[in-house]
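User: Structure with flavin mononucleotide, tokens only please.
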Amino acid sequence: MTVLVLTGSARRDSYTRVLGESLVAALPGAVLAPRLTELPYFDQDLEAAAPAEVQALRAQVEQADAVVVITPEYNGTIPGLLGNAIDWLSRPYAAGALRGKPVVTVAASPGAVGGARAIVSLRTVLANAGAVLVGPPVTVDAVNERLAGDALQELLAELIAVVEQPGLAA
Ligand SMILES: Cc1cc2nc3c(=O)[nH]c(=O)nc-3n(C[C@H](O)[C@H](O)[C@H](O)COP(=O)(O)O)c2cc1C
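Assistant:
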């Protein structure tokens, strides 16, 4: 099973990026998508002849059996960077790469509620883009304390159990 992992932060030492890298290292068949900073701003005038970076991401999503999206929480929602990527992947209308794609949603924050608000936004926009939301929403509090040692192994086991649930790639 090919699993594409998308992370929603531009920050160099991003916790969500580190979590995505760790998941890819631990999950056979998982691939980390390029940083979303590679994508231009969505422009409806460009969607029919999308820039190469967008076409490459579309192809990665289309070829994946499932996608894992790991988002930070910005002002109670998802970062614009991630929203921009989802906008690209939602188009062309009714034929975007996310349509019918099984997607596992994860939010992570150094804070105490683990991106509980961001994950609601994430699931809303993904569902509107036609994705099939699978598994429970996963929120990770105090993520900065969970990226090494036993805490990381426990977190990865939790994520992998969600990704590997029967029928995900069906
Ligand atoms: C513009 C901005 C808004 C933020 N808003 C929230 C928020 O609403 N809830 C939260 O838990 N953390 C918030 N944070 C803190 C982020 O959780 C923290 O910066 C985190 O490290 C971002 O994820 P990253 O490490 O993957 O870049 C915010 C950070 C920024 C820069």
